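Supplementary Methods S3. Input chains for the assembly prediction are listed below.
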Amino acid sequence: MDLVVVGISEYKFADKPDRLITYGLGSCVAIILHCRNSGVASMAHVMLPMSFTGDKISTPGKFADTAIVAMLKEMDGRGIGPGSLEAKLTGGADMFAGKIKGMSRRIGARNVLATRKTLGNYGVKILAQETGGNTGRTAEFHTEDGSLIVRTLREGKVVL
Amino acid sequence: MTDTPTTDFFLTSEDIDAIGRVGSIGARHAARALSRLTATSVRLSKPEMKTLSIGEVPDLLGGMDAPAMGVLIPFHGDVVGNTLLLYSDDGAKELLKLLFPGDDEVTEELKDSAIAETGNILAGAIHTVMSRLTERILISLPPITVQDMAGAILDPLLAEAGSYTDEVVTLVFHLSDEDGTCLVKTVLIPGIECLQLMQEAANRLEAG
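Predicted structure tokens for the full assembly:
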């Protein structure tokens, strides 16, 4: 069993029984797409809601919309359509409790909203979500049983 | 809802060096203020300027999920933006040793307050230098402290940078006592508006 580490603005794939992990999510969102039948999963660590240049960007994993499109495209290449996928989300915190100024305001909530909207546009069902609040999160996805473990420094862990 | 770039903002290595000189002036003022506050001699280095890819920034603090302390100092006035200072968990402990030498019974509340005030003094000194050089009104708002994973604290300002580039300008200062036995690394991340102002201030400084 391998542990596949997903960095900021990246998306990666794993096959059963491997695990996907991303560390230190604040306002960023981890998006997990999982096909139970095949055991294939993909995780993205997105920073921003939507790209302004669409699919021409060099780092699709940076934006919620382009990350989801890229993940779906690669799933399609493996013969997995959106209807076979389940999504789980975590992150999207407001680390400074509304006190931050300028363009970063509510970035976490906007990331979550853009993620939900894009998944909805492609008909991907969202199975679980643990987002918002003011805490950092580390997310680990198990392809074997589809569980998502979300760890925090102050509030322990939850399993989705 | 689309995140569009606010600017074609671009910095050359000469710009980054010049921004470092603005940071140095702020550091000198901050060192004097910290020395008065602690009634000891506090030294603050010139900033070490680093341009890092977004994914590399948390490594300055021990990694994405390493425990860290962040102090956010928002500002408003003619320009609205943010400056963020970060300490690793060990760095925050060292800072407390520097601020309260020989005092092992400092309360949690006082620790938070002291770290917030140190961040406020450094960021406030830089805001003042920027304000003076650019002739713009900048008012530093009260500092907000957060203890959490380094990556999580950094996220909002990395996202700001990420909306126009894949790199982040960081200023790394070292605080020390007189004999240099207590050394504290302080990582300063300017928000995009702060960085633009630092560049403008640097240009004014170069122009004399």
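Residues 13-207 of chain B form a domain with the Chemotaxis protein chec fold (CATH 3.40.1550.10). The beta strands of chain B are 43-44, 48-53, 67-77, 81-88, 138-140, 144-149, 167-176, 183-190.
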